[in-house]
Amino acid sequence: MAEPANPAPGKQDRAPGAPREVDTTLSFNEEFQAQLAALESGVSTDERDAVAALPSGSALLVVRRGPNIGARFLLDSAVTVAGRHPEAGIFLDDVTVSRKHAEFRREGSTFSVRDLGSLNGTYFDGVRIDEARLSDGAEVQVGKFRLTFYASRVDLANLAIK
Fold first, then answer.
1. Which residues contact 31 (CB under 8 A, 6 or more apart)?
2. What is the dihedral angle through the alpha carbons of 90, 95, 99, 103, rounded to the nearest 10 degrees?
């Protein structure tokens, strides 16, 4: 095959026999793009659908690392305690978790997390905290468990309008 007489500006000549760089353009439908975005962010289609269905005033925690990967916990009450105690609203069965480790609080449509004096601490986006306001997509670590926080899409849309 004949080589172009004048290579594209800024391109260097390639060595004989070296593979040729080819530019390609692909287009995908919206559904495929949504699935790809979900895979890139670690969110399954089921999880994305669950988050989309959250009513106002609620949120979802999804276990990303640690025992019970993929487990989901609905936050829909004023206070939800996470811990190793069998009666905890979010039961996390591992010795790295205190019996009453942390609590998730709802005030209107916003949520916060507060450490309850746990031995191993509670972390928000990798930083040990006493208390922090949660943002969509934030990571909360309780013992070995890493949970991702997802706010109601209805509440996020209302915040964007304000």
1. none
2. -50
